[in-house]
Design goal:
By secondary structure, this protein is an all-alpha fold. The chain is built from 10 helices and 2 strands; from the N terminus they run H-H-H-H-H-E-H-H-H-H-E-H. It has a two-stranded antiparallel ribbon with strand order 1-2.
Amino acid sequence: MKLPTDNPNPFVRFWQSVWAPTTRSLRGWAMASVVVNAGITVTGAGVRVTASGLGCPTWPKCTPDSFIPVAHPEVSPLNMAVEFGNRLLTFLVLAVGLACVVAALRMAPRRVTVVRLAWLQPVGIVAQALWGGLVVNTMLNPFTVGVHYLLSSGLIAACWMLYARAGEGDGPVRAVAHRDIRRLGHVLLAAVFALLVAGVVVTNTGPHSGDEVASRFDLDIESVARVHADVAYVVVGLTFALMFALHVTNAPRAARRAALALLGVELLQGVIGYTQWFLAVPAALVLLHVLGSTLVWIAALRVVTSLRERDTQPASVSPSPTEAAAVA
């Protein structure tokens, strides 16, 4: 059987990956969404460390009288370009999210759970963009800035779950590890999210506020950094415990490799964190640290989804419009 995605023309294959998707192409779009959401999280940190948070001082317009950057006496052209460039990336993230929705709707047969997960992306991206407007209008209030990052983490989780569910069946969940090990995995994921929240507090207490007029949390930076480090130790300990449990119970290789990858990313992130602390938080290391935190989150999500499987069962809903074309 020859599928539309087997066409030798790359442009046709690209189009068919959305309009006549296979499980592989849908998972490809979901992974692309993970990547672009992680990418815009890092570029958002780039806006902050370059003091470009108010490079476009209004929202949705860049300046009070223009949607695109124009000369403004109070704003550096470079800062304006950095902030506006990050805004433009939102359209790329939205486009990938919409591609996921179309592919999920055109999938044969259509799967309700996958469609719902796909819709979370464009809806979440629009909500994130609106929140970004609030960040600008509150002059980079540290609370709104922190929530902005955490919303991105939520979007990444939705994208990863779409990637995982698209590759599974619709049967009941079948555990591949002991029930208590799965619970440990969920506790670990919660601890990683707590680590992200603690990191947000540290970031919005220390330097690199995004603009000299931005306010900061009125907290002792050394104290919040120590709390952040303590949570990191808990996360590493839980990860090691999960690795050990998976090893002694001879869990599937995929689960053991996922836990090992998570531990590796955590250790690298720890090296970056301590280095930036001792070097007085240079901007370049802040970007690496944000990238590392995003990778830790993705790796933790991978661990949790590797601890269960779903078998295929006959679909109970009508096939999508492309079923006949895909089978032909």
